[in-house]
Amino acid sequence: MRRSLAFIIVNVLALLVATLPASAVPQLPDKHPVAVGTNGAVATVDPLATDAGLAILRRGGNAVDAAVAAAAVLGVTEPYSAGIGGGGFMVIYLAESGEVVTIDGREEAPSDPDFDRDVFLEGGVPIPFFPERVTSGLAVGVPGTFATWVDALERYGTITIAQALQPGRVVAQRGFVVDETFAGQTAGNLPRFRVITSTADTFLVDGEVPEVGSVFRNEDLARTYHKLQREGLAGFYGGDLAAEIVAAVQDPPVIDDPPFPVRPGLMVVGDIEQYQVLHPDPTMVEYRGLEVFGMGPPSSGGITVGESLNIGENFPLDAVDDVTFQHHVLEATALAFADRNAYIGDDRPQYNYVPTAGLLSQGFADERAALIDPLAAAAKPVAPGDPCDEDGSVLCVPNAAALAMSGSSTTHLVTADKWGNVVSYTLTIETTGGSAITVPGRGFLLNNELTDFNSTGDGPNLAAPGKRPRSSMSPTIVLADGEPFLAVGTPGGSTIITTVVEILHNRIDRGMSLPEAIAAPRATQRNTSTVGAEAAYRDLYEAGLTSLGHAFSGRSEIGAATGLEFLPDGRLLAAAEPVRRGGGDAGVVRADD
After folding, report:
1. What sign does the CA torsion over 550, 556, 561, 567 have?
2. Could you tell me if 356 and 364 are in contact, meaning their C-beta atoms sit under 8 angstroms apart?
3. Which long-range contacts (C-beta less than 8 Å, at least 24 apart) are formed by 503-507?
4. pLDDT band for position 24 (50/70/90)?
5. What Å distances lie between residue 576 and 258, 414, 503, CA to CA?
6. Are strands 531-533 and 552-554 parallel, antiparallel or unpaired?
């Protein structure tokens, strides 16, 4: 099957490129935020990526194949949010065995002993976060995205990495139409991009933002994809490309007399050569009779989403009024974030013990829920709890830590196939535009994921050689009676967690459809003095919540979610944002008439 499908896909796509008329110009594709049908589904932020995943499904590929192909296209069309210079987390439901498995492709710190807890300090003072810390070789972690793609296909897919990269290579060669979102993200990065010569050469046009409606091509990335099609994993994690990544990190290609310093990093080729994806157990909590699976450490997403839901289990969230519902959700996520910051980090033995069992126990959640006053918001920040009695390990130590924020440049996709396999995949390069360092001649930006480490204080998320920084990515799969029900996720830095919690509550407790749950106005309470909220949320709830003691600050938008649902009649519903981040795109293999 693998060899036959390989022949079909590669040759069909090659024929597509070869037969494009010289006059053919890419058009701005329509976006469809909702699709219902059968035989498989894909939802992403970009129609070209969604179409690539659907094409793989139509030709007999499975959900894993489709997820990697769609992600490879996003590396072209969403280069400031994702790509082979970054990392991510994949949660997969395997229909044949009924298992949920995960892949940890998180970026990793260099092995240099100088990459310690003080790495982002100079003279005992933190390096200014923006633009200096985020735009530096110090911020770049060893990328894990390409290793994730290869591992996912080799373990669970039916096609090769060469086949999965082909749609992305086609888009990079042919180009795509610049929309308002791409132009706006470029404009927001213009001061940084102009400082890095390779980035200006790749993503700017004569030093300026590409015009909306123009066609953007990335021939360097097309050549890089072609190289990786030929060479596979070794083509990225060794040889000339690894050396070029290290050179860009150690000696960023900066203009003369830059307006701010761009510091060199500590990565060496050996760090890239030794990188491996990991396969931690998924997290799981039972909520309202459903099994909710997520990503374990170094992501805090699965644990913090799970704890928030467990706290919510104590309240009749389906029966209360809207303001009371919102109050309880905000208070629950604040409590869960206090515990996240105190206990969650890279849980490999050389770094931390994370009391996952305790944090996800219903007993601990019940203790935390008892702190919620239904008539008054608690003063923020709240203190972390003590999950150690519920955890039961002698390694568990009560802790406290300050809030650490995450960047917002991320993307999420979901796929399902006709056999019932499901993928929920979040991938990122951290800040919009990552480190702003493009590997010269290679067409992709490097991440600045190591800024997710706490730069001061104590706790489980301090920098250390070879450590993976804590993440908030929350790819989630929900099972009902052992069968797939929902898959959801979103970008948004640390707001990812609160967005996923809100979507699940909206769908499960409030009776919203999945598209309604995704489109609903959002707020985020991450144990901070104010609730960050979109304007539409404030219009609906601010007056009532202010009377309970909540304080608000504005957010233009929170997240850009995608999701899918298995409907009772056997059909699939795929959903994406209708408006946020320019709107997303959902599709099914066989659509309803």
Report:
1. positive
2. no
3. 503/561, 503/563, 504/287, 504/292, 504/305, 504/309, 504/476, 504/478, 505/309, 505/312, 505/317, 505/325, 505/329, 507/565
4. low
5. 40, 10, 12
6. parallel
Query: Is residue 527 domain-resident?
Result: yes
8 Å CB contact between 455 and 120:
yes
Contacts of 339 (CB under 8 A, 6+ apart): 304, 307, 359, 368, 384, 385, 387
Nearest to residue 89, comparing CAs of 169, 164, 152?
Answer: 152
Q: What is the tens place of the pLDDT at every residue in 444-487?
A: 999 999 999 999 988 999 999 999 999 999 999 999 999 999 99
Number of folded domains that form the chain: 1
Look at residue 569 in the predicted model and tell me its pLDDT. 96
Q: Residue 406 has which token pair?
A: 């995450």
Per-residue pLDDT tens for 74-120?
999 999 999 999 999 999 999 999 999 999 999 999 999 999 999 99
**How many Å from the N-terminal Cα to the C-terminal Cα in the chain?**
31
What is the domain extent for residue 238? 1-14+48-275+408-583
Supply φ then ψ for residue 262, to 5 degrees. -110, 100
Q: Which of 148, 69, 161, 80 is nearest to 108 (CA)?
A: 148
Helix/strand number for the chain, H first, E second: 20, 19
What CATH code is carried by the domain that includes residue 194?
Answer: 3.60.20.40
What's the pTM?
0.96
In the numeric block, which tokens belong to residue 202? 């790749």
Please give the backbone phi and psi of residue 490, each rounded to the nearest 5 degrees, phi first. Answer: -165, 160
Give the phi and the psi of residue 375 in degrees, each rounded to 5: -115, 0
Position 579 in a domain: yes
pLDDT at 300 over 60: yes
What are the residues facing 27 on neighbouring strands?
none
Tell me if 95 is assigned to some domain: yes
Tally the residues of the chain.
593
Compute the distance between CA of residue 523 and CA of residue 369 in angstroms, rounded to an integer: 20
| Residue 10 confidence (pLDDT) above 50 | no
Mean pLDDT for the stretch of residues 349-366:
98
Please choose, from the candidates 228, 70, 237, 63, the residue with its C-alpha nearest in 3D space to the C-alpha of residue 162. 228
CB 477 within 8 A of CB 484: yes
Phi and psi, residue 409, nearest 5°: -95, 95
Calpha distance 380→93 (Å, rounded): 37
Cis peptide before 381 (omega within 30 of 0): yes
Residue 268 CA to residue 111 CA, distance in Å, equals: 8
Tokens 């492709």 label which residue? 105
Domain membership of residue 143 (yes or no) is yes
Cis peptide before 298 (omega within 30 of 0): yes
Decide the pairing of beta strands 121-122 and 125-126.
Answer: antiparallel
**Number of neighbours of residue 55 by Cβ within 10 angstroms:** 21
- Hey, which residues are catalytic here? 410
Helices (H), 251-296: 269-273
Does residue 316 have a cis bond before it (omega within 30 degrees)? no
In sequence order, the 6+-apart residues with CB closer than 8 A to the CB of 191 are 131, 259
- Give the Cβ contact number of residue 25 at 10 Å: 11
